[in-house]
Amino acid sequence: MVIPTNTRVETLATSGIPQIPKEYFRTQDELTTITNIFDEEKKELGPQVPTIDLNNINSSDPKTRKKCCNELVKAATEWGVMHIVNHGISGDLINRVKDAGERFFDQPVEEKEKYSNDIASGKIQGYGSKLANNACGQLEWEDYFFHLVFPEEKRDLTVWPSTPSDYIPATAEYARQLRALTTKILSVLSLGLGLEEGRLENEVGGLEELILQFKINYYPKCPQPELALGVEAHTDVSALTFILHNMVPGLQLFYDGQWVTAKCVPDSIVMHIGDTLEILSNGKYKSILHRGLVNKEKVRISWAVFCEPPKEKIILKPLPETVSEENPPLFRPRTFHQHMEHKLFKKKDDSVDPK
């Protein structure tokens, strides 16, 4: 079966095909590690992604606040990913964001195509499918909707869906609140490096230039989930990534030499440390390898926000305070754009170390 270049995964999934096209088959090495995600999520033995309670992140009691901050720093150092709870964003707002995204994807493909992107012409915002530029050349079992959400003056609301009507207000308010949470997290991580509170935020662009990109990932039911991946193994290029999901498991992290399945923790946001903070911290904070599995029983949807520095203005390199004779720099200087192209498009650049 030859797949037309504009075929949506949702179209394939709802066509009744008993087998997926070979373009979606993963490599032999990957196939040996792809298992039933529902069985994996039930496992209680082995490493578990940490859950960090942020309730005391602003406590007036120094000891209480320090304990909360230390737990966050420990998770960022050992795992680079965590479930955060009591994060300060209301359940009502999160439910509105999820509901709007689900209702957008509930529309017929023809309606969603009105918002389609065109990567070849440089129009990256909009509705799309991952069709190329991944590591092994195979396709991923995913459609998505992608656009910039913050700063507000950099948004292009013409690419945001007009249906459902709550999409724009809910998503915009979520972005504002998540940006405030980003400042709190970066402050804690700065202190964890022995730096002043505002240092990391300044190093990634500050309030004016740190960009928040929003991506709704839609993983349809897959007739042969043992052969496919929703998203292949990768690390995020961002400074931080925040993820909501519809409580269907799928996220796996490569930790201590094995794939660990993230539990579905109610009322949590999954937070990843990205490559940008790993570079700035000279490897203290981990950008963990992760991937997404699919299944044949339930549609999985996730809502990711990537916090990214300006592409060309800032040179990413280990901060001087993180470097010593005992800890030489692990990364060569590069712009975020250089790093992103190397990671996403496998372009050669002598100034960029492989990662």
Automatic annotation (TrEMBL):
**The organism sits in which domain of life?**
Eukaryota
- Enumerate the UniProt keywords alphabetically: Dioxygenase, Flavonoid biosynthesis, Iron, Metal-binding, Mitochondrion, Oxidoreductase, Vitamin C
Q: Which GO terms describe its biological process?
A: flavonoid biosynthetic process; pigment biosynthetic process
Query: Which Pfam families does the protein's record reference?
Result: 2OG-FeII_Oxy, DIOX_N
PROSITE patterns registered for this protein in UniProt: FE2OG_OXY
Does this UniProt record's set of keywords contain Protein transport?
Answer: no
Required cofactor(s): L-ascorbate
- Offer an example of a GO molecular function term for this protein: oxidoreductase activity, acting on paired donors, with incorporation or reduction of molecular oxygen
Fe2OG dioxygenase domain boundaries: 210-309
Q: Which family does it belong to?
A: Belongs to the iron/ascorbate-dependent oxidoreductase family.
Descriptive protein name: Anthocyanidin synthase
Task: Name the species this protein comes from.
Answer: Chrysanthemum morifolium
Gene name, please?
A: ANS
